[in-house]
Amino acid sequence: MPPSAQTTRLVSTLRLLIPRLRLLQKKDTASSVVQRRELSQLLSENREASARIRVENVIATDIAVEVMEMVELYCELLLARANVLDQLAFGEKGTRARLRAKELLKKQTLAQSGEKASTTAAPESSGSRFGFSWLGGSQKKEASTVAATSPLEGAGELSEEENAYMDTALDEAAVAVFYAWHRFPHELRELTMLRTMLGERYGKEFMTLAQDNKVDTVKVPDRLLKGLRVRPPTQELVESYLREIAKAYGVDWPDGEDLDIQEELGDAPPEFVDDTQDGDQGGDLPQTPRKQNADPASGPNLSEARRASETSELNKATPPRGPAALQGRSPVSVAPPAPRTDNPNPRVKVPGSEEDGGGAAKKGGKTNNSGIPELDELTRRFADLKRKP
Length: 389
Prior knowledge:
Elements: H1 5-44, H2 48-80, H3 82-89, H4 92-120, H5 137-149, H6 153-161, H7 168-181, H8 189-202, H9 204-211, H10 222-228, H11 235-248, H12 257-265, H13 300-317, H14 375-387
Helix pairs in contact: 1-2, 1-8, 2-7, 2-11, 4-5, 4-9, 7-8, 7-9, 8-9
C-alpha cells in the first residue's frame, strides 16, 4: 500500500530539514574555529578582558551545535517512523489523544483562572472595580506562572489511563520540536513546516502545552532544556574555555593554571612522597653493584683489560648498530645472480675469499701487505684478458 499524500509531505519535509541542520552545524563549527583562533591571538596579546567577553560567543555557538544535533536525531526518528505516526494520528488513537490534550489544557486554564481569582480577591478594596491593582500586575503574573507550573490532580488520572498519546518515542520527538521551534538558534523554514504538520497530527492543544513543557506524561529532555535556556555562562566555564584554547594554540596564559592543576590532581599518595632527609639518598633503594678490582696493586692495565673483555661480551650479545657495526664487514652488498638452467645455484665469488680459492695468492700473484695486487700483476692480468678470444 503506497503512503498517503500527508505522509509523503512529512517525509519530504524531513528529508529537506535534516541536511539543512547538518549544513548549519558545519557552518557554526567552522565559525567557532575562527573565533577560537582570534581568542588565542587576544590571549597572546594579553587582552584578557576582551577575550573573556568574546569567548561567550564561542560557548553559545557550541551549545547551538549541540541543540541542532539533538533536533536532528529527533527528526531522523520521525523520518524512520513516519508511516507509524500517520497510522496512529489519523486513527482512533489520534482522536483520543487530541481530546485528551484538549481536556488537559482546559483543566490547566481553569486552574490558572482560579489562582488569579484567589490572588485578586485581596486588592479589591484598593478602589479598582476590575479587582486588580495597576501596580500589582507583575506580582500577579508571577503567581499565575507558578500556579501554571504546579502539577495538576487531573493529570495523574489521565496518565494512569494511558501513558502515551501516540507513542512514547514519537511523543518525545514532537514535544522537542514544539519546544525548540521558537527558541531555535536559527530560523528554518523546514522546521516551521514540520511544526505545522505535527500540529495537525497532535492537535493545537498538545502543541500549546508542549511549547511550555506542560504535557503530563512527556517532558522535554533536560539536556535540550539547558541548551535552549537563555543564560550567561558561568565564570568557571569561561575560564575553562580560555584555558583549553590557550593550550590548543600554544599560548602562554598562566592565569591560575598551576593552581587549577594542583586542585584537579590533588596531593600525592604518602607512599610516593620522598622522605629523604639530611642528605640521605634513599638507602632502601636497590643499587647496581660495581665490580671491584681483586688486586689493587695490579694498576689500570688489569681494569682496562676487564673493561675491554666486558665490552666484547656485550657486543656479542647485542651487536652494535651504526658505523661501528660496519667495521667487521664490507659496507657494499652484492645481490646474487638469478638461477639459470645451467647454473641452478649461483654464488658470488669475492676475490680473496675461501670460495675464490685464495684469489691472487693461490695463483702466485704478487700482492702487498694489505692484499691489493701490485702494478705488474695488474698489467699481466690485463694482457691475459686481451689474449682471450
